[in-house]
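ERR on first pass: missing label on line 2. Operator R.T. fixed the label and resubmitted. Corrected input:
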Amino acid sequence: MKIAFTTKGIQWDSIMDPRFGRTEFIVIYDEEKDELSNIDNRAVEGVAHGAGPETAQKFFDLNPDVLITGNGPGGNAGRVLEQANLKIFVGAGEMTVKEAYKAYQKGELREA
Amino acid sequence: MKEIVIISGKGGTGKTSITASFAVLGGKNIVVADCDVDAADMHLLMQPDWEFSEDFYSGVAAEIDQNKCIKCGKCAEVCRFEAIPVIEKKYFVSNLNCEGCGYCSQVCPRDAISMVEQNVGKWFISNTKADNQMVHARLKIGADNSGKLVAKVKKEAKQIAEQNSKDFIIVDGSPGIGCPVVSSLSGTDFVVLVTESSVSGLHDLKRVYELVKKFKIPAGCIINKADINLQVSEEIKAFLKEENVTHLADIPYDETFTEAMTDGKTIVEFSESKLKQILEETWRKVKEISSPS
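pass 2 clean. output:
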Protein backbone atom coordinates (compact mmCIF):
# COMPACT_ATOMS: atom_id res chain seq x y z
CA MET A 1 0.00 0.00 0.00
CA LYS A 2 1.07 3.56 -0.69
CA ILE A 3 0.11 6.11 1.92
CA ALA A 4 0.22 9.87 1.37
CA PHE A 5 0.51 12.50 4.11
CA THR A 6 0.08 16.30 3.98
CA THR A 7 3.11 17.60 5.86
CA LYS A 8 5.31 20.56 6.78
CA GLY A 9 8.52 18.57 6.32
CA ILE A 10 9.84 15.42 4.66
CA GLN A 11 10.87 13.19 7.58
CA TRP A 12 9.03 10.71 9.76
CA ASP A 13 9.21 13.18 12.65
CA SER A 14 8.02 16.15 10.57
CA ILE A 15 4.77 17.80 11.66
CA MET A 16 1.68 17.19 9.57
CA ASP A 17 0.15 20.10 7.69
CA PRO A 18 -3.57 20.14 8.59
CA ARG A 19 -4.34 21.84 5.26
CA PHE A 20 -4.88 19.91 2.07
CA GLY A 21 -4.67 22.42 -0.81
CA ARG A 22 -1.89 24.59 0.56
CA THR A 23 0.03 21.82 2.30
CA GLU A 24 3.77 22.42 2.12
CA PHE A 25 4.75 18.86 1.22
CA ILE A 26 3.18 15.56 0.32
CA VAL A 27 5.06 12.66 1.84
CA ILE A 28 4.50 9.17 0.43
CA TYR A 29 5.24 6.01 2.34
CA ASP A 30 5.46 2.84 0.25
CA GLU A 31 4.80 0.00 2.69
CA GLU A 32 6.07 -2.78 0.43
CA LYS A 33 9.37 -1.09 -0.33
CA ASP A 34 9.55 0.53 3.11
CA GLU A 35 10.45 3.75 1.37
CA LEU A 36 9.67 7.38 2.18
CA SER A 37 9.50 9.86 -0.70
CA ASN A 38 8.07 13.35 -1.02
CA ILE A 39 7.01 16.10 -3.36
CA ASP A 40 7.44 19.80 -2.67
CA ASN A 41 4.02 21.46 -2.87
CA ARG A 42 5.05 24.92 -1.66
CA ALA A 43 4.45 26.51 -5.06
CA VAL A 44 0.72 26.03 -4.51
CA GLU A 45 0.83 28.38 -1.53
CA GLY A 46 1.44 31.11 -4.10
CA VAL A 47 -1.64 30.51 -6.23
CA ALA A 48 -4.43 33.00 -5.62
CA HIS A 49 -7.34 30.65 -6.22
CA GLY A 50 -7.94 26.95 -6.75
CA ALA A 51 -5.25 25.59 -4.42
CA GLY A 52 -7.33 22.53 -3.52
CA PRO A 53 -7.95 21.19 -7.05
CA GLU A 54 -4.34 21.93 -8.03
CA THR A 55 -2.96 19.80 -5.22
CA ALA A 56 -5.62 17.14 -5.80
CA GLN A 57 -4.46 16.67 -9.39
CA LYS A 58 -1.04 15.58 -8.17
CA PHE A 59 -2.63 12.54 -6.62
CA PHE A 60 -3.29 11.02 -10.02
CA ASP A 61 0.47 10.76 -10.67
CA LEU A 62 1.31 9.74 -7.12
CA ASN A 63 -1.48 7.20 -7.09
CA PRO A 64 -1.55 6.41 -3.35
CA ASP A 65 -4.13 4.09 -1.80
CA VAL A 66 -4.62 6.23 1.28
CA LEU A 67 -4.42 9.94 2.12
CA ILE A 68 -3.88 11.07 5.70
CA THR A 69 -4.44 14.77 6.44
CA GLY A 70 -5.83 17.22 9.00
CA ASN A 71 -9.18 18.76 8.13
CA GLY A 72 -9.93 16.93 4.93
CA PRO A 73 -10.16 18.48 1.48
CA GLY A 74 -12.79 21.11 0.64
CA GLY A 75 -15.56 20.67 -1.91
CA ASN A 76 -13.69 21.22 -5.16
CA ALA A 77 -10.63 19.22 -4.16
CA GLY A 78 -12.94 16.52 -2.82
CA ARG A 79 -14.66 16.14 -6.17
CA VAL A 80 -11.31 15.71 -7.92
CA LEU A 81 -10.12 13.17 -5.36
CA GLU A 82 -13.28 11.12 -5.74
CA GLN A 83 -11.94 10.14 -9.14
CA ALA A 84 -8.56 9.16 -7.73
CA ASN A 85 -9.99 6.18 -5.90
CA LEU A 86 -8.28 6.56 -2.56
CA LYS A 87 -9.36 6.43 1.06
CA ILE A 88 -9.08 9.69 3.01
CA PHE A 89 -8.45 9.81 6.76
CA VAL A 90 -8.62 13.07 8.73
CA GLY A 91 -7.82 14.35 12.21
CA ALA A 92 -4.04 13.98 12.04
CA GLY A 93 -3.35 17.74 11.76
CA GLU A 94 -1.34 18.08 14.96
CA MET A 95 0.65 14.84 14.82
CA THR A 96 4.04 13.98 13.36
CA VAL A 97 4.04 11.81 10.23
CA LYS A 98 5.04 8.81 12.30
CA GLU A 99 2.28 9.39 14.86
CA ALA A 100 -0.23 9.84 12.06
CA TYR A 101 0.84 6.55 10.46
CA LYS A 102 0.57 4.72 13.80
CA ALA A 103 -2.84 6.25 14.48
CA TYR A 104 -3.97 5.15 11.03
CA GLN A 105 -2.73 1.59 11.62
CA LYS A 106 -4.57 1.43 14.92
CA GLY A 107 -7.74 2.66 13.24
CA GLU A 108 -7.79 5.85 15.33
CA LEU A 109 -8.33 8.25 12.45
CA ARG A 110 -11.72 9.12 11.04
CA GLU A 111 -12.45 8.25 7.44
CA ALA A 112 -13.70 11.26 5.48
CA MET B 1 -2.30 26.97 20.68
CA LYS B 2 -5.73 26.79 19.09
CA GLU B 3 -7.05 28.60 16.07
CA ILE B 4 -10.65 29.81 16.20
CA VAL B 5 -12.33 31.10 13.05
CA ILE B 6 -15.45 33.22 13.16
CA ILE B 7 -17.60 33.19 10.03
CA SER B 8 -21.17 34.06 9.16
CA GLY B 9 -21.96 33.34 5.53
CA LYS B 10 -24.24 36.37 5.57
CA GLY B 11 -23.21 40.00 6.05
CA GLY B 12 -24.62 42.16 8.82
CA THR B 13 -24.98 39.42 11.41
CA GLY B 14 -22.56 41.11 13.79
CA LYS B 15 -19.62 38.82 13.09
CA THR B 16 -16.90 41.46 13.28
CA SER B 17 -18.42 43.17 16.35
CA ILE B 18 -18.39 39.82 18.12
CA THR B 19 -14.91 38.89 16.87
CA ALA B 20 -13.51 42.22 18.07
CA SER B 21 -15.16 41.69 21.46
CA PHE B 22 -13.46 38.30 21.74
CA ALA B 23 -10.19 39.93 20.67
CA VAL B 24 -10.48 42.42 23.54
CA LEU B 25 -11.57 39.77 26.06
CA GLY B 26 -8.69 37.51 24.97
CA GLY B 27 -6.22 40.36 25.59
CA LYS B 28 -2.56 39.44 25.62
CA ASN B 29 -3.17 35.69 25.35
CA ILE B 30 -4.22 35.86 21.73
CA VAL B 31 -3.22 36.93 18.25
CA VAL B 32 -5.86 38.43 15.96
CA ALA B 33 -6.04 37.73 12.22
CA ASP B 34 -8.42 39.75 10.06
CA CYS B 35 -9.12 37.61 6.99
CA ASP B 36 -12.24 39.52 6.00
CA VAL B 37 -10.03 41.51 3.67
CA ASP B 38 -12.55 42.50 0.99
CA ALA B 39 -14.03 45.00 3.39
CA ALA B 40 -11.63 44.91 6.29
CA ASP B 41 -13.04 46.88 9.19
CA MET B 42 -11.72 45.30 12.32
CA HIS B 43 -8.99 47.94 12.47
CA LEU B 44 -11.71 50.52 13.22
CA LEU B 45 -12.40 48.74 16.50
CA MET B 46 -8.91 47.47 17.37
CA GLN B 47 -7.02 50.72 16.68
CA PRO B 48 -3.86 49.11 15.31
CA ASP B 49 -0.59 51.05 15.03
CA TRP B 50 0.29 49.64 11.56
CA GLU B 51 3.80 48.93 12.83
CA PHE B 52 4.96 46.62 10.03
CA SER B 53 3.78 46.62 6.45
CA GLU B 54 4.72 44.79 3.27
CA ASP B 55 3.41 44.82 -0.31
CA PHE B 56 1.35 41.85 -1.34
CA TYR B 57 1.43 40.39 -4.85
CA SER B 58 -1.26 38.11 -6.18
CA GLY B 59 -2.61 37.15 -9.57
CA VAL B 60 -1.50 38.48 -12.94
CA ALA B 61 -2.76 41.02 -15.47
CA ALA B 62 -1.85 41.52 -19.11
CA GLU B 63 0.50 44.30 -20.17
CA ILE B 64 1.01 45.35 -23.79
CA ASP B 65 4.43 46.46 -25.01
CA GLN B 66 3.49 49.36 -27.30
CA ASN B 67 6.82 49.09 -29.17
CA LYS B 68 6.05 45.54 -30.24
CA CYS B 69 2.31 45.95 -30.83
CA ILE B 70 1.30 45.92 -34.52
CA LYS B 71 -2.30 46.85 -33.69
CA CYS B 72 -3.80 43.75 -35.26
CA GLY B 73 -6.54 43.69 -32.62
CA LYS B 74 -6.45 39.93 -32.06
CA CYS B 75 -6.08 40.38 -28.32
CA ALA B 76 -9.15 42.59 -28.00
CA GLU B 77 -11.11 40.18 -30.16
CA VAL B 78 -10.52 37.14 -27.94
CA CYS B 79 -10.82 38.94 -24.59
CA ARG B 80 -14.00 37.82 -22.85
CA PHE B 81 -13.80 40.55 -20.25
CA GLU B 82 -13.69 43.51 -22.62
CA ALA B 83 -10.47 44.44 -20.89
CA ILE B 84 -8.59 45.70 -23.99
CA PRO B 85 -10.08 48.99 -25.17
CA VAL B 86 -8.65 51.02 -28.04
CA ILE B 87 -7.68 54.51 -27.02
CA GLU B 88 -6.37 56.86 -29.73
CA LYS B 89 -5.71 53.84 -31.97
CA LYS B 90 -3.63 52.10 -29.32
CA TYR B 91 -4.54 48.93 -27.47
CA PHE B 92 -4.47 49.13 -23.67
CA VAL B 93 -5.30 46.73 -20.87
CA SER B 94 -7.80 47.92 -18.33
CA ASN B 95 -6.56 46.48 -15.05
CA LEU B 96 -9.99 46.63 -13.47
CA ASN B 97 -11.44 44.36 -16.14
CA CYS B 98 -8.49 42.03 -16.79
CA GLU B 99 -8.97 38.66 -15.10
CA GLY B 100 -5.45 37.51 -15.90
CA CYS B 101 -6.49 34.52 -18.02
CA GLY B 102 -3.66 35.09 -20.50
CA TYR B 103 -5.66 34.33 -23.65
CA CYS B 104 -4.51 37.61 -25.26
CA SER B 105 -0.84 36.85 -24.69
CA GLN B 106 -1.34 33.42 -26.30
CA VAL B 107 -2.82 34.81 -29.51
CA CYS B 108 -0.53 37.83 -29.90
CA PRO B 109 1.56 37.21 -33.05
CA ARG B 110 4.39 39.48 -31.85
CA ASP B 111 4.70 38.31 -28.23
CA ALA B 112 3.91 41.86 -27.23
CA ILE B 113 1.77 40.88 -24.26
CA SER B 114 3.21 39.72 -20.99
CA MET B 115 1.41 38.62 -17.86
CA VAL B 116 2.62 40.69 -14.94
CA GLU B 117 2.19 39.84 -11.26
CA GLN B 118 -0.02 42.40 -9.55
CA ASN B 119 0.64 44.41 -6.42
CA VAL B 120 -2.86 44.17 -4.96
CA GLY B 121 -2.31 45.78 -1.57
CA LYS B 122 -0.44 45.53 1.69
CA TRP B 123 -0.46 43.31 4.73
CA PHE B 124 0.34 44.48 8.24
CA ILE B 125 1.39 43.41 11.70
CA SER B 126 0.07 45.84 14.32
CA ASN B 127 -0.08 46.26 18.06
CA THR B 128 -3.66 46.88 19.13
CA LYS B 129 -5.28 48.64 22.05
CA ALA B 130 -6.13 45.23 23.53
CA ASP B 131 -2.48 44.51 24.32
CA ASN B 132 -2.17 41.95 21.52
CA GLN B 133 -0.93 41.77 17.97
CA MET B 134 -3.08 41.72 14.89
CA VAL B 135 -2.24 40.60 11.36
CA HIS B 136 -4.38 42.29 8.74
CA ALA B 137 -4.38 43.52 5.15
CA ARG B 138 -5.68 46.28 2.96
CA LEU B 139 -6.48 45.78 -0.70
CA LYS B 140 -6.33 48.35 -3.46
CA ILE B 141 -9.52 49.46 -5.15
CA GLY B 142 -10.91 46.71 -7.35
CA ALA B 143 -8.50 44.09 -6.04
CA ASP B 144 -10.12 41.00 -4.63
CA ASN B 145 -9.36 38.86 -1.65
CA SER B 146 -7.89 35.44 -2.36
CA GLY B 147 -7.13 32.17 -0.70
CA LYS B 148 -3.50 33.14 -1.03
CA LEU B 149 -3.87 36.36 0.97
CA VAL B 150 -5.92 34.65 3.68
CA ALA B 151 -3.30 31.88 3.91
CA LYS B 152 -0.60 34.53 4.26
CA VAL B 153 -2.40 36.46 7.04
CA LYS B 154 -3.09 33.24 8.92
CA LYS B 155 0.46 31.97 8.52
CA GLU B 156 1.96 35.17 9.93
CA ALA B 157 -0.50 35.15 12.84
CA LYS B 158 0.38 31.55 13.58
CA GLN B 159 4.06 32.34 13.60
CA ILE B 160 3.58 35.17 16.08
CA ALA B 161 1.39 32.97 18.26
CA GLU B 162 3.92 30.12 18.25
CA GLN B 163 6.92 32.34 18.94
CA ASN B 164 5.21 34.05 21.86
CA SER B 165 3.39 30.98 23.21
CA LYS B 166 -0.07 32.49 22.86
CA ASP B 167 -3.11 30.37 23.65
CA PHE B 168 -5.37 31.36 20.76
CA ILE B 169 -5.52 32.84 17.29
CA ILE B 170 -8.82 34.54 16.61
CA VAL B 171 -9.59 34.78 12.92
CA ASP B 172 -12.23 37.09 11.50
CA GLY B 173 -13.18 34.87 8.56
CA SER B 174 -14.06 35.91 5.03
CA PRO B 175 -17.66 36.26 3.85
CA GLY B 176 -19.49 33.87 1.54
CA ILE B 177 -18.41 30.31 0.76
CA GLY B 178 -15.69 30.85 -1.86
CA CYS B 179 -11.95 30.37 -2.00
CA PRO B 180 -11.05 32.84 0.79
CA VAL B 181 -13.46 31.11 3.19
CA VAL B 182 -12.04 27.71 2.33
CA SER B 183 -8.62 29.14 3.09
CA SER B 184 -9.93 30.71 6.35
CA LEU B 185 -11.22 27.33 7.51
CA SER B 186 -8.27 25.25 6.35
CA GLY B 187 -6.22 23.95 9.26
CA THR B 188 -8.37 25.50 11.97
CA ASP B 189 -9.44 23.97 15.30
CA PHE B 190 -12.86 25.44 15.99
CA VAL B 191 -15.44 27.45 14.07
CA VAL B 192 -17.83 30.00 15.53
CA LEU B 193 -20.79 30.59 13.24
CA VAL B 194 -22.56 33.90 13.73
CA THR B 195 -26.07 34.06 12.35
CA GLU B 196 -29.18 36.14 12.85
CA SER B 197 -32.81 35.09 13.11
CA SER B 198 -33.86 35.94 9.59
CA VAL B 199 -34.69 33.75 6.62
CA SER B 200 -31.49 34.69 4.80
CA GLY B 201 -29.53 34.31 8.03
CA LEU B 202 -30.62 30.68 8.30
CA HIS B 203 -30.15 30.05 4.59
CA ASP B 204 -26.58 31.34 4.58
CA LEU B 205 -25.81 29.54 7.82
CA LYS B 206 -26.77 26.25 6.22
CA ARG B 207 -24.72 27.04 3.14
CA VAL B 208 -21.54 27.89 5.01
CA TYR B 209 -22.01 25.00 7.42
CA GLU B 210 -21.85 22.62 4.46
CA LEU B 211 -18.26 23.77 4.04
CA VAL B 212 -17.40 23.44 7.72
CA LYS B 213 -18.80 19.93 7.66
CA LYS B 214 -16.61 18.95 4.71
CA PHE B 215 -13.58 20.01 6.71
CA LYS B 216 -14.77 18.02 9.74
CA ILE B 217 -14.17 20.95 12.09
CA PRO B 218 -16.18 21.17 15.31
CA ALA B 219 -18.42 24.23 15.42
CA GLY B 220 -20.56 26.39 17.67
CA CYS B 221 -23.17 28.96 16.77
CA ILE B 222 -24.19 32.36 18.10
CA ILE B 223 -27.69 33.52 17.14
CA ASN B 224 -27.60 37.29 17.06
CA LYS B 225 -30.80 39.37 17.11
CA ALA B 226 -32.42 36.15 18.28
CA ASP B 227 -35.65 37.89 19.25
CA ILE B 228 -36.52 39.59 15.97
CA ASN B 229 -38.04 36.47 14.46
CA LEU B 230 -38.77 33.83 17.06
CA GLN B 231 -39.99 31.31 14.55
CA VAL B 232 -36.75 31.40 12.53
CA SER B 233 -34.84 31.34 15.81
CA GLU B 234 -36.48 28.03 16.62
CA GLU B 235 -35.70 26.72 13.14
CA ILE B 236 -32.05 27.65 13.59
CA LYS B 237 -31.93 25.84 16.92
CA ALA B 238 -33.48 22.74 15.37
CA PHE B 239 -30.88 22.86 12.61
CA LEU B 240 -28.03 23.17 15.12
CA LYS B 241 -29.35 20.22 17.08
CA GLU B 242 -29.67 18.09 13.99
CA GLU B 243 -26.12 18.88 12.89
CA ASN B 244 -24.63 18.54 16.35
CA VAL B 245 -23.43 22.17 16.42
CA THR B 246 -23.05 23.66 19.91
CA HIS B 247 -25.57 26.45 20.50
CA LEU B 248 -23.26 28.98 22.14
CA ALA B 249 -25.57 31.93 22.78
CA ASP B 250 -28.68 33.89 21.94
CA ILE B 251 -28.04 37.60 21.70
CA PRO B 252 -31.13 39.85 21.76
CA TYR B 253 -31.47 42.73 19.33
CA ASP B 254 -29.72 45.64 20.98
CA GLU B 255 -28.76 49.03 19.62
CA THR B 256 -25.69 48.98 21.84
CA PHE B 257 -24.08 47.16 18.91
CA THR B 258 -24.41 50.24 16.72
CA GLU B 259 -23.69 52.75 19.48
CA ALA B 260 -20.44 51.00 20.43
CA MET B 261 -19.43 50.82 16.78
CA THR B 262 -20.00 54.51 16.09
CA ASP B 263 -17.94 55.21 19.20
CA GLY B 264 -15.08 53.08 17.78
CA LYS B 265 -15.37 50.63 20.66
CA THR B 266 -16.10 46.97 21.04
CA ILE B 267 -19.27 46.06 22.91
CA VAL B 268 -17.39 44.73 25.91
CA GLU B 269 -15.62 48.06 26.40
CA PHE B 270 -18.62 50.25 25.71
CA SER B 271 -20.88 49.69 28.68
CA GLU B 272 -21.75 47.35 31.52
CA SER B 273 -24.67 45.91 29.61
CA LYS B 274 -26.40 42.58 29.46
CA LEU B 275 -24.70 42.15 26.10
CA LYS B 276 -21.30 42.38 27.71
CA GLN B 277 -22.21 39.58 30.11
CA ILE B 278 -23.44 37.36 27.29
CA LEU B 279 -20.28 37.91 25.26
CA GLU B 280 -18.00 37.25 28.23
CA GLU B 281 -19.87 34.05 28.94
CA THR B 282 -19.72 33.03 25.25
CA TRP B 283 -15.98 33.68 25.03
CA ARG B 284 -15.47 31.53 28.12
CA LYS B 285 -17.47 28.74 26.46
CA VAL B 286 -15.55 29.02 23.19
CA LYS B 287 -12.24 28.75 25.03
CA GLU B 288 -13.46 25.76 26.96
CA ILE B 289 -14.84 23.83 23.98
CA SER B 290 -11.97 24.58 21.61
CA SER B 291 -9.22 23.48 23.99
CA PRO B 292 -10.48 20.66 26.15
CA SER B 293 -7.97 19.96 28.90
